[in-house]
């Protein structure tokens, strides 16, 4: 390729650089093929097309991220030493990190994350991971070998290309092919996501830093495409990367099957369960089990609801969404002939509970209630449930899940519930700050008080219909809500107790009331329910929790977010990212969620717990 405006030396540098990057692209594709070899559940035609296209696409994009800054540098310098050093180091580091990530993916089924890096850097890591001298020797020799080969490659290319030309068509052709792979990859995923082709959507976690493209919102708004297409989906066990459950559950259930009612208040945090704020729930709890050291499995609705129904860490959310896999709990209720009624004042397509929790029962969902906001829709949840109770056939047991949304920001409630003042129902989100905390919290309290009024109607109806004698009732929150107690407002921003600790009230007919202080989690709910139904299957077969009726409680709990999670104990929080793009996101915080300085010491003390959690992240993967 002729570059007439550049000197001969600079043209040689750029030619060498382009050839060097292209050869390394081919090498990286060969290396990344190992991700496919170490993945399971692949094999169908469409999944094969996608995974190999994504192999090329993702590798090309990562190469571009490295090539662009180097190209800019070489436009300003023709120094041979700079060329050798930068190219050798940049691509060697890429391949070394790639091999390390493949090693981690093979053994843990996830990519490099902040906890792995900190664990490796902590004193005593050898004792936990047992890498062995052979591993270190092999790694050292491999690193030296990669550096040597990359240096020899760039040097030989530079020497050979001094008097050679590259065809003017070569770079545009290579660029066009790369762009074609990227476009094909993204469009394939987007279309598969629209039509619930799980053999494709499940594969988005195979390659590090892969970014899936979704077009659901555009298709719905521009073309009226119906995105809630769960009724067309059938789970395919022959094409799955999940090992969930590990074995089929036994079918030793009680002869008499109780009704089950789960009521969830959005963003209901632990200290909002009071006589002043929730008098109806408080009164009902006098005959219930109260768990006052209970944590949600997430700091957002997706992960809170997911962990409640699936009884495994929120880390798995993306995998189960990709495969459109429902929870074992719902599978068992379907087998037992339960009737269902799922009512929500927010659409269950966002978050995607229609594609996960309720994927097998879309016909029993009412989540498109009339009205603009939760102050109009929440009362309709109550009306819908009571009306359904009046009309249903009582010969079969039922499961009902009701989701109230008024307590989610912006805290909507009718004017007659404006009890706690000063309040602020319409904050300016551009200027809101800690100065507004009192008014915002009062609005939040008013919204919960409003929801409590609706829940009171439900509880009184169940009592009036004499259903409390054979109905298990659970009332909880999907996550908490913070008002700058640790520097944040709302949720999804931290794992403080204000965002993760929630009330849990469990009514079991005939069970004596009790206040339980053991550390418990949403992951413990399904094992409890199946135990109450009489199923004797080991919870480890389908769960990472234990029965709430277990007097021992948990040593620690795990709460997950979009790309991070926290190991929560009585005295500290270990917060880390499980995504490759945030490798340095690791914090140790005390019980008040303040940063602790001695993180290495704490990590060393908690190493056993950390290893356990990392292993649990792969427990239900093939």
Distance between the termini: 49 Å
Radius of gyration: 28 Å
- The proportion of strand residues reads 5-15%
Principal-axes geometry comes out as elongated
Give the rounded overall mean pLDDT: 87
Helix content: 40-55%
- Return the CATH class of the largest domain: Alpha Beta
CATH architecture of the largest domain: 3-Layer(aba) Sandwich
Uncertain runs: 123-130
Structural class: alpha/beta
Q: Which fold name is given in CATH as the topology of the largest domain? A: Alkaline Phosphatase, subunit A
Q: What's the number of extended β-strand segments? A: 16
Strand order of the largest sheet: 5-4-6-1-7-10-2-11
Number of helices: 19
Largest sheet: 8 strands, mixed
CATH homologous superfamily label of the largest domain: Alkaline Phosphatase, subunit A
Count up the domains.
2
Q: Notable features of this structure?
A:
single chain; 622 residues; alpha/beta; Alkaline Phosphatase, subunit A; 16 strands; 11% strand
Structure write-up:
With 622 residues, the protein is α/β, with parallel strands linked by helices. The chain folds into two domains: 8-205, no CATH class; 259-570, Alkaline Phosphatase, subunit A, CATH 3.40.720.10. It has 19 helices and 16 strands. The chain has helices at residues 8-37, 45-76, 80-108, 114-121, 125-129, 132-160, 170-194, 198-201, 216-223, 279-285, 301-310, 317-323, 328-335, 374-391, 437-464, 497-500, 525-532, 599-605, 607-616; strands at residues 259-265, 289-291, 294-295, 339-344, 365-366, 398-404, 471-477, 482-483, 489-490, 504-507, 514-516, 520-521, 557-560, 564-568, 572-577, 586-590. Strands 5-4-6-1-7-10-2-11 form an eight-stranded mixed sheet, with helices on one face. A four-stranded antiparallel sheet has the order 13-14-15-16. It has a two-stranded parallel sheet with strand order 3-12. Strand 14 and strand 15 (572-577) form a beta hairpin. 44% of the residues are buried.
